[in-house]
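Let us practice reading a record.
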Amino acid sequence: MAINKNHEFEELDGIKCAIVEKNSPQQRVDFLKPLLEFNKFTVVVVPSPPPKVVPVPAATVVSEETIAEPPPPPPVTFTIGVTDVTFNPINAIFGRLLKTPDGHIVTLAYWQQLESVSHDDVPYFESKVD
């Protein structure tokens, strides 16, 4: 049980893991897994359970042409965890503990995939606001 929402851990495939992200699409897994493995973390990825669906009441047939369409299938998502239960993604990003394969510090924008290259010239706490 986590103390707060920022530091969760669960058993993934029978291994106690710190949760990095839940309900992540495959593209996010493809980005985070190599990044975390480069930083010497053992990554565990498991499919997330499907969301709970409220049962749809039976459709009344007015004519033979009226047929209720089934709801679309839920998107396939994954839960990403690392075996180091002390890992906290927020502390790792703002504590400047993670590096990219090209040697730069992982920034929040890079982590959120808003930038394709990490610009780590000035830490966020030293940047000057005009």
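A brief commentary: The chain is about 20% helix and 20% strand.
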